[in-house]
Design a protein that fits this description.
flat, mainly alpha, about 0% strand
Length: about 60
């Protein structure tokens, strides 16, 4: 096994997709790269989750008023 870098420049994320899921992903990419598509999808998921959590907090505070 090779020597591991102490401060790697990039981190790697991976996941498994079925053939059907990969077809859907490839169809949605529209000429871009899988890497860029998946990075944007992950970041969009984070933003949506944060927005949902914020709305839940606001609703709970306003509901107590």
């Amino acid at each position: 096994m090779g020597k591991m870098k102490l401060n790697p420049r990039y981190n790697v994320l991976s996941f498994r997709a079925s053939d059907e899921e990969l077809e859907v992903i490839d169809a949605a990419i529209n000429g871009g790269s899988r890497q860029q598509f998946l990075l944007e999808a992950a970041l969009e998921k984070i933003l949506r989750d944060e927005e949902y959590a914020f709305r839940e907090r606001v609703s709970s505070v306003l509901g107590q008023g």
